[in-house]
Each structure stands twice: as C-alpha cells, then as structure tokens.
Design goal:
The complex is a heterodimer of chains A (about 290) and B (about 800). Chain A is of the alpha+beta class. Chain A contains twelve helices and 14 strands. The longest helix of chain B has 28 residues. Classes of the chains: A alpha+beta (about 290), B alpha+beta (about 800). Chain A: This is Xanthine dehydrogenase family protein subunit M.
C-alpha cells in the first residue's frame, strides 16, 4: 500500500493541464478526487510518473443552466452535487444517486468528472448520465469535442477519452418539470459499489408513459443504457406485463462478473429487481 | 457529625467502585487522537521493514535475487530464510506445538506468505525495493478443500514433517493430518444413539473469518549491542509471553529484553501469537544495530496474520420423542492452513471445544476433532471468544434448532426442557467440565417475556400464511440462542502456553497521600482496564477510582501475567487485583487499630475506612491510614502499603446468556433486515454496567458481521478473496442493528468478587442467534440447515432453491 515515485503538477488552467498531458503522454494521469487513482497507485496497479492535479483549475468548477441544458464542471464534487439548489429543483435524481456514492468523506473529494471519466463500471454516475442522455465535453490539444455518455464507454477503464484529453464538463438536457425519477441501488454496505443498480427517468401523460429512459450500473464492464427496455416502457401504462417484458429486456443485456457481491445470475436478477422498484417509485413521483 | 460530613451514600459514590457506570478514563486520550500506538513511536536511526510475499498458494521457491533491490540508495538489507538459518530462526515454534516458517524455506504454503524481508531507510524505499526483488517459483498442486486434505493422492504440504507420524497431540494418520483429539464416552454415546427415539445429523460449517482490529499488527525492535539489551514495542495481547518466547528463541536473557505494548487498537485474538514480522524485525535490528519498525498493511493483516474459525462440524443429537436429549456426537474437521498456529492453551489442540454440550443436560457425549493442513494462511485464533468456544456454541445452538424442527417443537421450549437446572450447579458435563454456576431457566424466561416471544411466533405464523397466499414477499425469522461460555483460562492444572502456566497478577502500591499506582499482567486493547481495574480496587480498599492509576503492558514494571484474550482478564487478573487489594486492607486494618488504639478485631470495614464496631465515629479513612503506613507504622510492622498477588484460578468461569434475533427477509433480493436484537447476559458480578454494555454492543456487531457476510475465502488456486475492506464485511453504523441489552446476575462462587467476564459472550451468542433467525425464516419452506455466511446473494440462492421465486 505504498505508491511508487511520481512528479506532482498542479496546473491552473485547462490549457496548461492539456499541455502537461501532451508533453508526458502515457506517463501522465490527471488527478481529480483521487478515490480511484490513489488506491490503484498504492497497490502499484497504476504507476504514473506525472500526476496532474486538476483541483487548481477554477474553470472546471461550478454548475449553471444554459437554455435547456444544465452544465456541470468536471471538478464539481459529489458533495456539491448533493447540495446544489439548481439540481435539487431541476435534476433531483443527481442528488438521490450521489447520496448513494460511498460516504460523506469520499463525496467531499470525489468529483463528477473523475467518476464519469475513469470508466470504472462500479461508479454510479456513468449509468445515471446515460439515463439522462448527458454529453461529456472533452478538451484536448485540438480543442473541444463532445461525446454522448451513451457512446463514451468501451470496456472497463476504456473510454472514448484520448490520453491527452480531459473531461471538462458534463451537459445534461433538463428534463421536463414533473418528471418521475429513481435510482435504486443494492449494495452490501455503505461505501460499496452496487451489486446492481438502476436509474429511471419517466414522464407520464395521465396513466401513459410519454417518455422513459433506463440505465443500469455495475452489471457489465460498462454502464448499460437499456434502450430496448426504455422502448418497451414508452407509451405503456406500466402494466404488469409490460414491466415484466421491460425487466426481461434489461436483464438480457447484462453481463455481470461474479464477485463477492454474488454470482452473475444473482446480479442479473438484481438488476431486474432494482429496475422494477425504480420504475414503481419513478412512476409514483411522475403521477404525484 | 456536623452537616459537612459526607453521608455513607456520598462516600460510596465518591469511590466510583464496582457497579458504577464510570466513564472510561482512557477515552479522553483515544477520542482526541492522543493515544500512543506502536506506529506513533519513532526512534533515532529507525529503519523500516517490509515483506516480499508469495503470489502463489503452493510453490517451490527456487531463487531469490535481491541484487537490483540492494542497489537502490537507502536499502540496507534483504533477509531471506538462508540468513535466518544463521541464527537458527528460519522457523519458529507455534503456540500449538507445530513449527512455522519465518521466511519461505524452499517453498511457500499459502498466498502472501513471507518470502523475504527488506530493510530500508523509509517505507517508500522498502516498497520500491520489493518491486525489484526477483523470486522464481515453481508452482505445486494447491490444496484448498479441507475435506480433500486426507485423500491418498493429496499433495504433500509439509515435507519437513515427512516420516513424523507422531505430532504434538498424538499420532498423525496422513501427511496432511495434524492431530486427532477425542473426548467423552464413545461407547455410551453410540448406545444412546442406538436406543434413541429420534436422531438428527447435520454438517454445520463455521466459515473462515478474521478478527480485523482497527490497528494492524506491528512492532519496533531495537537491539542495544553495547549492553546486549533488546527493546521491543509491539501490538501484543500477551507481552510477558512474547518476552519469554523471545528470550528462549534469541538466547538473550529475559531480564535484558524489554517488551512494551503501548496503546493497542483492538486485538480480538489477532495479537496473541508471534508473527514473522516480529522475528524479522528483531533479527534485522541485531544485524544492523539500528531500530527496525514493521507495520502490517490491511491486506497483509487480513490475508496472513491469524484467521479465525474454519471448523466443519458434523453434529448428531439423540433424543426422546418428548424432546429430552439423550446423547451428543460431534466430529470436527478443522482447517488449520499451512501451519498449526492455533492460539490455544498448549494442551488443547481444539481449544475448549468440548464445551459443545452447551447449556443442556446431555447424559453422554462424544467429540472427535481432526486438524488438517491446507494451502491457506495459518492462525485459528479465538476471535473475540474463548478458545474455539464460539464454534462450539454455534454447533450446539444450530443443532438444537435442527432437533426442534425434526420434533416439531418450539426451539425455545426444547431448550427450556433440556437446560441444566439451577440446583444442578456445580454441574459436571459429559465432556469433562465443571460449570461453576448458572440459572438458565430464569434468564430464558426473562428474555422471552421481554420480547414477547409467543406473540412473535403468532406474528410469524400469520406472515407465513400471507407469504403462501402471495400477499407479501417478506418472511420472518426468530433466532433463539442460549449459550454457555467457558472463559478465564485458566487453572494451571490444565492450562499453559508453551509451559507457562496461565495465572495472572496484580501489584498495587498506595502512596503516602493515598493515591495509587497499580500494574497488572493483563493488557487492555480497548477493554477499558484503566477504568474497571480501578473500580475493583476502589471498592476493595476505599480509595476513589479517580485516584488510582492503572498501568499495563510494560514487562519491566508490570508483574508477570499471561495477557488479555479469551475473556480471561476479569476471571484471572481481576481476581488477582481483588486479592492484592485485600492484602493491603488486612495491613491497613492493623495500622488503623494502632491509630485508634483498639484491637484490630474491634474494627469493621465501612466503604472507605475502618471504624470501631458500635462506634462508627471512631474511624480512620484509607487516606489517613496510607499516611500512617509510611510515616507512623505500628511498632514491629514495616513501613509501606503495597501488595502483589498472583492468582491461579481454581476453575474456569461460565458466563451465559439468552439472545433473540427477529429478522425480516426480502426473498427477492436476499436482504435480511434485523428488526430486533435482544441480548440478556449473565456475567456474574457486574463491575461497570456501561463497559459491559459497550462490550456487548461491540461483540454483537462482530457477530452480525460474521453471520451475515464476513468471510475470508479462497478460490481453487488458493488465491485469497476479499482481503480488503471492499469485500471483507466490516459493518458501519448504518448496517448495524439496534441492540437491546439486559442481564441477570449469577455470581461465580469461586471468584473473589463473583465476576465471570463478558467481552466475548456477545460474539459467541450472537452468531447463532443471527444464523438461527435466517434458518428459522426458511424452515417453513422445507429447509433444515443453511450454511453461513448469510449474505444477500446466498440467502437469495436459498430462497430460489426452495422455490420462493415462483
């Protein structure tokens, strides 16, 4: 549990950070909240020679509503997400989900950018961002580009992010007022990654679903946007038969690993149970 | 008397003696981060040691090359088994009569076994060096399943034992067999089973887990080569034994070894044994002439120093149709890992597992335990329990439930029917123990009334019906446990550690102004001895606890004792304290008689001093007596007021308790929620009710963890799974149930103050209560026994297998 030697950098702008990444190439890693990278370094599973601490980059902080989009700076901490009046009013599922990430001490340090960029399938925010159809803003030597959360994840720790790029912000389309939402997470204890978790965003028109979006956490080597399940639920009245078919469709796309949280079969089934419970709660909220 | 004279009640309260909820005095420093732990100690020129460990569970070590590592500036030395052979320390004796490699001697027997010891100027450099040490391994077939350990073609784990068919505890019947230990009357037990109206049989496993104290194992060794003296700071539960063993192994005279256990951050059995880190630090300090510190990290702690349990218990009970038990037969397969390093008194290869008849009047019983080697870490420590007692309690308490189910009897009623009756104490058990005292029926009835047991059974029945009708996906379990512990090791006639009898000791020294320094052979790791020992002294000699300082852990100053584990401190050291205090009081009585110019037989003790019988205003307080003891002793009596007592207990003590767990289980997720947990403990005389409550809360939390998911498991390659707090279940306050505590008081008749010890009862009794609750919930669906741990996925699997998912 002792890291190897590294050189510590603390740039004050995105441009400076990118230029450090460019000049050190594969030997450099950006440091956000550090709750994934530092333990990996202590285990010597990661041994970057240059650590580029982003906490001095003021431009990466803060949240604002721009038109019909909410833009959140990558270095915004999960604690700040939990306590943002803007998010509580417009995107309460972010607070609900963030409160299930680890524990308060970690949330003071952990950031939205680090959580979505690291590519750890156990992280809660990537699945949520897929559910919300968020877009990540990436800055690199050639300027900025945007990648949808649903296209960002390739495999565990492999993403669309190039080695010399940074995630600078997350853009989320503001859902309509009165939408229903829920994040259901089964975990062994506080601080654990999900055995399985499901994010649901739903709008209702009377008893009928007018839009629905479903994503799953930690039941494959990437977060999973459950397109088919979302489609089945869309336009339905959430009757038992439809929910059963949607749950089956969601379970069908899972490919969980067996680990201390349980065998693959269990984790797949728990993805289904979490989805069913999230749907019920989200629909209740949408109707309320 | 004028109005300013304190009343008897005020004088009594001022003592904060036995029975008082005195706040823990040590917490003032602990809660402010001002404790002094081994890793807080820094010495000039101090070096740091760290281990190269094996990635393989079973392999030959064919080459260790440290050339590149030694080139790093700041790397001082790299020790291997070859170096240790020069000082005859490549292997060390274990507490169980086996030997254990200090560093890999030609092979490794479990993953993360210590292979080489790097000594460097700081920990970063040491870890850098570890990365550069080349070790060549030749993998060997791995033995993980203890049930396959004695197969004819099972790999030979211990070539060093080749041809040695006589082990420390009798004959070995296979190259991976360690011992067989049999107790009881086998013929009579077989006869009882042959004649029985009803029998049950179940293989009940208690999985491998780990004590995981907050502070890991660590030490700081400093060899003063000029004076030939070794100072060893360490996380030791038994510092005097460590000193004796260090002297025997190193040939440094015992008086030139100073072992000091400073504040210790939890032990739970993890810090009883001797580990390669200690030996290597000492040798490295001797080699370098500089102090060497070794601090385990969490993964090292969980994967190498001292697992607990791993007992597989085939349990059979014979009974009459009315539920009266007529015989008990248990066979245990004990998985000891690569070396038998069980921390038991030396003559007890399976600890006190023969307490397995529990709280019940079994006329006959037979127990047979086979210990075997596997490619897992050594240990087998008593994780917050007396030696193998929690395994025994789980075995019998689960077994009684299995019998109740077979008979269609309520499990509480079955227990009430078979309890040893109050008038049967002292009671001689079929497996050889003399239970000192108990009143099981009173305790059980009090507990059942407190939780409305019959009402809960009615509710459970209604819920089962509702479940069958499809109205709920939740089922309810009521876990019953009535345990009897055996603690306070122990009488020298049957308890020793490597030949050292298991007495304990206390020294009390009263200063002229009436304040006190006292030292004991026990060693607190969080138990609160500084608080409770002072309370015993306060009551015995009438000096306020606040004026009494308690010191433990320094072998130069403390009297020799066997340390703290197995709930032995109160039964053994606690008795020594009371007896030392009584010696002081006896001398004080003579001094008081002289001061009051009466015969000592005319005096009576009253709270904090002696008074003349029939004339209580003629009195001398203990403070006054203390001054006189030094400055005006009676003629012919030597000055001073102090005493030492060594206590060899005449018997063990037998705390007991009635625990009930009410649980609701979501069959669709397997998540079990503890609705209610009620724990009634009878630990005899209660010294500090608040500390008892704290002990019970802590032990129950550990029991909850163990029963519901805490596990050290291995895959088929012998890779240790879950050796970090990510996977090893250490519950937080969020997961931990609310605890309700209660008590009855049945003093120990042979203990000077009647106290029995309580620290381990909640772990011993808690595990069966939780497991029985899970089992009880599923019983109506046709299940008879579900193995622990009961984490969500396993519970879900049970529900699925029983058809609960439709």
């Amino acid at each position: 549990m002792i890291p190897g030697e590294f050189i510590y950098h603390r740039p004050s702008s995105v441009a400076e950070a990118v230029s450090l990444l460019v000049s050190h190439g594969d030997e450099a890693r950006p440091l956000a909240g550090g709750h994934s990278l530092i333990p990996m370094m202590k285990l010597r599973m990661a041994a970057p020679e240059h650590l580029i601490d982003l906490s001095g980059v003021a431009d990466l902080k803060g949240m604002q509503e721009v038109g019909d989009t909410i833009v959140i700076g990558a270095m915004t901490t999960q604690h700040e997400l939990v306590n943002s009046d803007l998010l509580i009013a417009k995107l309460p599922i972010i607070r609900e989900t963030s409160l299930m990430i680890a524990d308060p001490q970690i949330r003071y340090m952990g950031t939205i950018g680090g959580n979505v960029a690291n590519g750890d399938p156990g992280n809660d925010l990537p699945g949520l961002m897929q559910c919300l159809n968020a877009v990540y803003v990436l800055a690199g030597p050639d300027g900025e580009r945007e990648v949808a959360a649903r296209d960002f994840y390739e495999a565990a720790y492999f993403t669309a992010l190039a080695p010399e790029e940074l995630v600078t912000a997350v853009k989320i389309p503001t859902p309509p007022a009165g939408h229903g939402f829920a994040y259901e997470k089964l975990k062994r204890k506080v601080g654990d990654y999900a055995t399985a978790a499901a994010a649901v965003l739903v709008t209702m028109s009377g008893d009928t679903v007018s839009s629905c979006s479903v994503a799953l956490t930690n039941v494959a080597d990437t977060p999973l946007y459950a397109a088919q399940a979302s489609e089945i639920l869309n336009g339905s009245t959430l009757d038992a038969d439809t929910v059963t078919r949607a749950v089956a469709a969601a379970e069908a796309i899972t490919m969980p690993a067996a680990d201390g949280r349980g065998p693959a079969e269990y984790r797949t089934k728990m993805a289904g149970v979490m989805l069913e419970r999230a749907l019920a709660r989200a629909a209740e909220r949408a109707k309320g | 008397m004028n109005d300013m004279t304190p009343s008897r009640e005020q004088r009594e309260a001022a003592l904060e003696g036995m029975g008082c909820k005195r706040k823990r005095v040590e917490d003032i420093r602990f809660t402010q981060g001002k404790g002094k732990y081994v890793d807080d100690i820094k010495m000039p020129g101090m070096l740091h040691g760290d281990f190269v460990r094996s990635p393989y569970a079973h392999a030959k070590v064919t080459k260790i090359d440290a050339t590149e590592a030694l080139k790093i500036p700041g790397v001082i030395a790299v020790l291997t088994a070859e170096d240790l052979k020069g000082v005859n320390l490549a292997w060390m004796p274990t507490l169980a009569g086996d030997v254990q490699m200090v560093l890999a001697d030609g092979k490794v027997l479990y993953q993360n076994q210590e292979v080489a010891f790097v000594v460097a100027e700081d920990r970063y450099i040491a870890d850098d060096a570890i990365q550069l040490i080349e070790v060549e391994y030749e993998e060997l077939p791995v033995l993980v399943d203890p049930f396959k350990s004695m197969d004819p073609d099972a790999p030979v784990l211990r070539p060093d034992l080749e041809g040695k068919m006589e082990g420390a505890h009798g004959p070995r019947k296979h190259h991976n067999h360690i011992f067989n230990w049999s107790v009881g009357d086998e013929d009579a037990t077989d006869k009882a089973f042959a004649e029985a109206e009803v029998t049950v049989k179940e293989m009940i496993s208690y999985h491998r887990t780990h004590p995981s104290p907050l502070e890991t194992c660590q030490c700081l060794a400093s060899m003063d080569k000029v004076n030939g003296e070794l100072t060893l700071y360490g996380t030791f539960q038994a510092p005097h034994v460590i000193r004796t063993v260090a002297s025997l192994l190193s040939t440094i005279p015992e008086h030139k070894i100073h072992v000091i256990a400073p504040d210790v951050g939890g032990g739970f059995g993890n810090k009883v044994g001797a580990y390669p880190g200690y030996i290597c630090s000492i040798v490295a300090s001797i080699v370098t002439g500089q102090p060497v510190k070794w601090v385990e990290d969490r993964m090292e702690n969980l994967s190498t120093t001292s697992f607990a349990r791993d007992y597989h218990m085939t349990t059979e009970i014979a009974a009459k149709k009315d539920g009266t038990v007529t015989g008990l037969k248990v066979h245990v397969l004990g998985d000891h890992g690569g070396f038998d390093a069980c921390a038991d008194p030396s003559k007890w290869p399976a600890g006190f597992f023969n307490i397995v008849t529990g709280s019940y009047d079994f006329p006959v019983a037979h127990l047979s335990v086979d210990g075997v080697y596997t490619n897992k870490a050594p240990g087998g420590v008593a994780y917050r329990c007396s030696f193998r007692v929690t395994e025994a309690a789980y075995c019998i308490e689960r077994g009684m439930d299995v019998l109740a189910q077979k008979l269609g009897m309520d499990p509480a009623d079955l227990r009430l029917k078979n309890f040893i009756k109050a008038e049967q104490f002292p009671y001689n058990s079929a497996l050889g123990w003399e239970y000192d005292s108990g009143d099981y029926h009173t305790a059980m009835h009090k507990a059942m009334d407190a939780i409305d047991y019959r009402g809960l059974r009615e509710e459970q029945k209604a819920k089962q019906e509702a479940f069958k009708r499809g109205e709920t996906r939740e089922i309810m379990g009521i876990g019953v446990c009535f345990f009897t512990e055996i603690v306070g090791a122990g009488p020298s006639k049957n308890c020793d550690i490597l030949g050292v009898a298991m007495f304990d000791s206390a020294e009390i020294r009263i200063h002229p102004t009436g304040s006190v320094i006292s030292r004991m052979g026990s060693k607190s790791q969080g138990q609160g001895h500084e608080t409770t020992w002072a309370q015993i002294i306060a009551t015995e000699i009438g000096i306020p606890a606040a004026d009494i300082m308690v010191e433990e852990g320094d072998t130069d100053t403390a009297p020799y004792g066997l340390g703290t584990y197995g709930s032995r401190s109160t039964p053994v050291a606690g008795a020594a304290i009371a007896l030392a205090a009584r010696k002081i009081r006896a001398k004080a009585q003579m001094i008081a008689a002289h001061m009051l110019e009466v015969s000592e037989f005319d005096l009576e003790w009253d709270i904090d001093g002696f008074q003349v019988k029939g004339n209580p205003e003629a009195r001398k307080s203990m403070k006054e007596i203390a001054w006189a003891a030094y400055n005006a002793p009676p003629p012919g009596i030597e000055p001073g007021l102090e005493a030492v007592s060594y206590y060899d207990p005449p018997n063990m003590t037998y705390p007991f308790g009635a625990y009930f767990c009410v649980m609701d289980i979501d069959v669709d997720t397997g998540v079990a929620k503890t609705r209610r947990f009620y724990a009634l403990d009878d630990c005899g005389t209660r010294i500090n009710p608040m500390i008892i409550e704290g002990q019970v809360h802590g032990g129950l939390t550990e029991a909850f963890a163990i029963a519901m998911g805490q596990e050290i498991s291995y895959d088929e390659m012998g890779n240790v799974m879950g050796a970090s707090f990510m996977d090893f279940f250490l519950p937080t306050a969020v997961e931990t149930p609310h605890w309700e505590t209660d008590h009855t008081v049945t003093p120990s008749p042979h203990h000077p103050i009647g106290a029995k010890g309580v620290g381990e009862s909640p772990n011993v009794g808690g595990v069966p209560a939780f497991s029985n609750a899970v089992n009880d919930a599923f019983g109506f669906l046709g299940s008879t026994h579900i193995q622990m741990p009961h984490d969500a996925w396993r519970v879900w699997q049970v529900a699925k297998n029983l058809g609960a998912h439709g």
